[in-house]
Design goal:
The chain is of the alpha/beta class. The chain folds into two domains: 2-160 and 338-353, Rossmann fold; 171-336, Glycogen Phosphorylase B (Rossmann fold, 3-Layer(aba) Sandwich), CATH 3.40.50.2000. The protein has twelve helices and 17 strands. The chain has helices at residues 15-22, 63-67, 82-90, 119-129, 141-144, 189-203, 220-229, 245-253, 267-273, 305-317, 319-336, 339-353, and strands at 2-10, 26-35, 44-47, 50-53, 56-59, 72-76, 95-100, 134-136, 154-156, 176-180, 210-214, 236-240, 255-259, 263-264, 278-281, 285-286, 299-302. A seven-stranded parallel β-sheet has the order 3-2-1-6-7-8-9, sandwiched between helices. Helix 9 (267-273) crosses helix 11 (319-336) and helix 10 (305-317) crosses helix 11 (319-336).
């Protein structure tokens, strides 16, 4: 079976998922902006040429003919990509499947399952319902679209990242707290640093946790200067971007918590996969990944900086409690959010889309 996935980027964190899917289908990834992969791939890639029409993107070079040469086309459901949506008007036997977050969210617009539906939302839902099946990142948005999208055709490819195999946590080896991600003001990294400093002062011991900050971004230089000015260089380490998964695994193996005060993205799944509880605010910016956190079971959701100070302090005084929380996080990841779970969501959507076709060959899921 020939499957085409249309996106703006081929993101490096999705490569393990695409590799797994390519074992089941003849896969091609087409992109408009960037291919972040720096390795030999087990699937084909294709750069799409395009032009901008006001705020919309139009794909050039007989795009419709390309798509109709595939059995299934899965596309990023961004309304700015008019060419993707226009496939609905001109397709032949090709099955079309939009792949979407399910709820609009950004740094300026919080992810909300209870927000009042606007006219544009209703139109968007009706449009999604016109395709052969629909793929969501998470299961929670299904309730939001109830009565607008036929639930029978909605499938979940649980958005996630891959992790390396790692052993059980060794309590004597755990000596740090971790932040990992892009460094932007909106993430309230200074809240983390200030809370860490207060917790360290409260505990008042030489062997308190260190704080490792991994990532790059517009706040990097300011954070670096802040750490130097506050004379925190012996306890807070600004490590810059790290792309080597072995090194990332090592950092998680000695971390009791992974904390991002105001943003909960795919680092939630990365942290859970490595058996580390993720800590963030209850109303943190998210694309839905925050919903993986079951408060005080596999991670922590808090309301104020004072609470964060207490969480960091308590993690030092009661390490075993947080190691157990990390085990719960790992079990959640293994049971719900591995790359195989994500691939199986794609497979279910593909199989459903072709169930009325006599020539459609069903794909076996990963067991």
């Amino acid at each position: 079976m020939k499957v085409l996935i249309l996106q703006s980027h081929i993101s490096s964190y999705n490569i393990p998922v695409y590799k797994l899917l390519s074992r089941k289908v003849e896969l091609t990834l087409a992109y408009t902006i960037a291919n972040e992969a720096d390795e030999d791939l087990s699937f084909k890639t294709l750069k799409l040429e395009y032009f901008n029409f006001y705020n919309f993107i139009i794909i050039k070079n007989n795009f419709r003919k390309l798509c109709n040469s595939f059995d299934v086309v899965i596309f990023m459901a961004d309304l700015h990509y008019l060419s993707f949506w226009a496939l609905l008007l001109f397709r032949t036997n090709t099955k079309l499947i939009p792949w979407t977050i399910g709820i609009r969210a950004s740094y300026k617009r919080l992810y909300s399952l209870t927000a009042k539906k606007r006219v544009i939302d209703l139109l968007y839902g009706k449009l999604l319902n016109s395709f052969d099946s629909v793929i969501f990142y998470m299961k929670q948005p299904i309730l939001f679209w109830r009565g607008i999208i036929n639930e029978e055709k909605i499938f979940v490819a649980h958005n996630t990242v891959d992790v390396l195999e790692n052993g059980p946590k060794q309590i004597n080896y755990i000596n740090s707290i971790l932040f990992i991600g892009s460094l932007y003001k909106e993430k309230k990294i200074y809240e983390l640093i200030e809370s860490y400093v207060l917790a360290k002062k409260n505990i008042n011991t030489k062997d308190f946790f260190t704080l490792n900050i991994v990532g790059k971004g517009e706040e990097y230089s300011n954070i670096e200067l802040y750490i130097k000015e506050k004379k925190l260089t012996k306890s807070i380490f600004l490590l810059g971007p790290i792309y080597d998964e072995v090194e990332i695994s090592k950092l998680f193996s000695k971390s009791i918590l992974c904390i991002s005060p105001n943003q909960a993205g795919l680092s939630v799944l990365k942290s859970m996969g490595y058996g580390v509880p993720f800590v963030t605010r209850k109303n943190a910016i998210t694309g839905g990944e925050r919903l993986n956190i079951i408060n005080n079971f596999n991670g922590i959701l808090y309301n104020s900086r004072a609470e964060l100070v207490d969480i960091i302090s308590n993690a030092f005084l009661n390490k075993q409690e947080y190691i157990e929380m990390g085990r719960n996080a790992k079990e959640y990841y293994m049971s719900n959010a591995t790359p195989k779970h994500m691939v199986n969501g794609f497979i279910e959507a593909i199989n459903f889309s072709g169930k009325t076709s006599k020539t459609f060959k069903l794909i076996k899921k990963y067991g």
